[in-house]
Amino acid sequence: QVQLVESGGGLVQAGGSLRLSCTASGIIFSINTMAWYRQAPGKERELVAVSSNDGTTYVAESLKGRFTISGDNAKNTLYLQMNTLKPEDTAMYYCTAPPDYWGQGTQVTVSS
Fold first, then answer.
1. What's the rounded Cα separation, in Å, for the pair 23 and 66?
2. How many CB atoms neighbour CB 64 within 10 A?
3. 42: alpha, beta or left, given left = phi > 0 and alpha = psi -120 to 50?
4. Rg of the chain taking only CA atoms, in angstroms
5. Cα–Cα distance, 35 to 84 (Å, whole number)
6. How far apart are CA 103 and CA 4, in angstroms?
7. Which of 56, 68, 107, 112 is the most buried (most CB within 10 A)?
8. What is each CA distance from 65 to 30, 72, 89, in whole angstroms?
9. CA separation (Å) from 34 to 7, 30, 53, 77, 100?
């Protein structure tokens, strides 16, 4: 079993920044890939960014240049740095070790 706990969400004005954290515990040696998804009200969940143990990262094309994914293996923590936030970034952000493990989510609200 793997437990994922997100933190760092909150209310921010447009143009601001937030850094989300996702700390993993449990049988973490089994994790090869972790990712961030988000889901806005009334919309489907969408992939934000992916990080793999081999150092490969991926950020959704529409978010490149504003969002960065990184990890700290020593702390078993995955990060999502979000800059120049826009109201359309408002969503619940979820950390996942796909396909089976998901965190509870952290809310990001960007005011205009």
1. 22
2. 11
3. left
4. 13
5. 21
6. 5
7. 68
8. 30, 21, 14
9. 15, 11, 9, 10, 11
Instruction: Tell me the residue length of the chain.
Output: 112
* Residue that is written with structure tokens 């923590």 in the block: 77
Residue indicated by tokens 């990184």: 70
Q: What is the pLDDT of residues 53-104, one digit of tens each?
A: 888 999 999 999 999 999 988 899 999 999 999 999 999 999 999 999 999 9
Tokens for 82? Answer: 């979000």
Q: What are the structure tokens assigned to 12, written together? A: 């921010």
